Amino acid sequence: MPGSPDEPSGLPEEAEALLQWLAVEQGRAPATLAAYRRDLRAYASWLAERHRSLRSVTEADVVDWIGELRGRGLAPASVARSMVSVRSLHRFLTAEGVAADDPTAAVDRPRVPRGLPKALTEEEVGRLLAAPTGDEPLARRDRALLELLYGTGARVSEVVGLSLGDLDLDASLVRLFGKGSKERIVPVGAHATRALVAWLGEGGRPLVEPARWRRRDDASAVFLGARGGRLTRQGAWDVIRRHGLAVGLGGRLSPHVLRHSCATHMLDHGADIRAVQELLGHATVSTTQVYTLVSTERLWEVYRAAHPRAASASGR
To answer: What average pLDDT is seen over the chain?
Structure first.
């Protein structure tokens, strides 16, 4: 996507052509295109300082660029993301016949250390879920929100996107729409079901409904904000953070903390990894496997602390 006439893009025409192709042919999101543009602008500027054109880049130049990024102290994930942009550009130029070959073809992708999800302990989750007290409508809403997030492992965006028709509380099921609008049906536990019934019944959601809906979509929302509109993702995160702070978990929270905790605790209790994959809506089981690392580490911690011969037997 070319820059505006008033603001030069700072990119060669070849890079602008790639961005145009990504936008029109691939349908990439504006945020993705903006990230590509930043990465490619930095890359093009670095090449210009070395009097290199995109058509004359060699494999050695690409390796030097990776070294430059690391030398700037960029995180491994940022280096890897930049290389995705650069690799896409050179592949595009080769496919279009602009360049004879792809200088990134033989360059290994920068490795990104696999971080472990931050999960709360079961005791900490219990404190968080018990934090909303009282029987007023928003307290009921907060209990239902927290219980549903932990009970299903759903993403915050999936939960705030729920409409009343997505719930079947008689069967204790909820329909979620994940990434790419992919639909999945997941069970809702007894605690979450009771909390939802309390929120949706008299004394809950009906008392938050406005006299007139500002947007048609708000009328069908499961979770409403204090002013009667559909609860936003930021609003849901504020609920989590506020109650977390109240029970001393402020520094432990992230937007996905209950999702991570749900997956970790299920695996801790012997759940099949394929079932957890289906529950979380992961496209591949490899994404879910990171949670097995968390569970294994917890098992080692318990074993080292409790077994009298753990030090010699573990070999760790």
So the answer is: 86
Question: CB–CB of 166/175 below 8 Å?
Answer: yes
Q: Buried (b) or exposed (e) across 94-128, using 16+ Cβ within 10 A?
A: beeeebeebbbeebeebeeeeeebebbeeebbebb
Write down the pLDDT at residue 255.
77
Catalytic residue among 36, 43, 150, 291: 291
Residue 2's pLDDT band (cuts 50, 70, 90): very low
150 annotated active-site: no
Confidence of residue 26 (pLDDT cuts 50, 70, 90): confident
Catalytic residue among 37, 205, 230, 259: 259
Give Cα 188 distance to the centre of its chain: 22
Is 291 tagged catalytic?
A: yes
Domains recognised in the chain with CATH numbers: 13-95 (1.10.150.130), 122-303 (1.10.443.10)
Active site residue 260: no
Catalytic residue among 179, 182, 214, 274: 179
d(CA 95, CA 101): 9
Q: How far apart are CA 115 and CA 294, in angstroms?
A: 10
- The Cα–Cα gap between 306 and 282 comes to 35
Annotated catalytic residue 259: yes
The 10s digit of each residue's pLDDT in 111-169 is 765 565 678 999 999 999 999 999 999 999 999 999 999 999 999 999 999 999 999 99
Helix%, strand%, coil% for the chain, nearest 5: 60, 5, 35
Residue 256 annotated among the catalytic residues of the structure: yes
Beta carbons of 273 and 267 less than 8 angstroms apart: yes
* Residue from 155, 205, 230, 265 carrying the catalytic annotation: 155
> Known catalytic residue: 191?
no
Question: Does the pLDDT of residue 217 top 70, yes or no?
Answer: yes
| Interatomic CA distance for residues 33 and 265, integer angstroms | 37
Question: Is pLDDT at 301 greater than 70 in this prediction?
Answer: no
